[in-house]
Amino acid sequence: MSNIASTPKPPYYAVIFTSVRTACDNGYSKTANRMIELAEQQPGYLGAESARENIGITVSYWADLESIKNWKANTEHLQAQRNGHKLWYESFKVRIVKVERDYGM
Amino acid sequence: MSNIASTPKPPYYAVIFTSVRTACDNGYSKTANRMIELAEQQPGYLGAESARENIGITVSYWADLESIKNWKANTEHLQAQRNGHKLWYESFKVRIVKVERDYGM
């Protein structure tokens, strides 16, 4: 999660998840790690990048919209989302995006 | 930069800039702040989000691709990009994306 993701030639898709945490851990760290592990097993998963200071930004990369939809509907992930709403996030924003172009060094 | 950006109803565009810093400051912090200030003045700028741990992730939001192209070509920004390549970044990746959908809490 803490490296620049190696992604294929565009187009592909991404989910930009930006969040402000509450002060409450209550299983957060354990679940966050489990969600990474679980995401990596999903069809269409291409990689992810993550950093947190005042806000947290996690960008996960996916082959297509279908893969994103399936990941959102994953049973274990749904439970984590519910706990996120209730316990772990003060506020958050999810943006579903299409990566059209990339370059780097 | 450190809050969740208030963005309009999609579609709009974004630049996901992921980077690994070198140990060298050499004007980095000053330039980073100036680039935020300068970006905010550009036509089509909608907001930005930023966090750094092992890697840095900055997502800037834009009304259209034309605005992103103009920002990339801004003279002062071009100089910052050159210094970024030479001095400040071990590696980086830029992804130009179209935001198709968003939701949040």
UniProtKB/TrEMBL annotation, chains A, B:
Domain ABM: 11-82
Keywords: Monooxygenase, Oxidoreductase
TM regions (residue ranges): none
Alphabetized GO MF terms: monooxygenase activity
Alphabetical list of InterPro entries matching this protein: ABM_dom, Dimeric_a/b-barrel, Jasmonate_Hydroxylase-like
Gene3D superfamilies cross-referenced by the UniProt entry: 3.30.70.100
Pfam families referenced in this protein's UniProt entry, alphabetically: ABM
Annotated organism of origin: Alteromonas aestuariivivens
Protein name per UniProt: Antibiotic biosynthesis monooxygenase
UniProt keyword annotation of Oxidoreductase present: yes
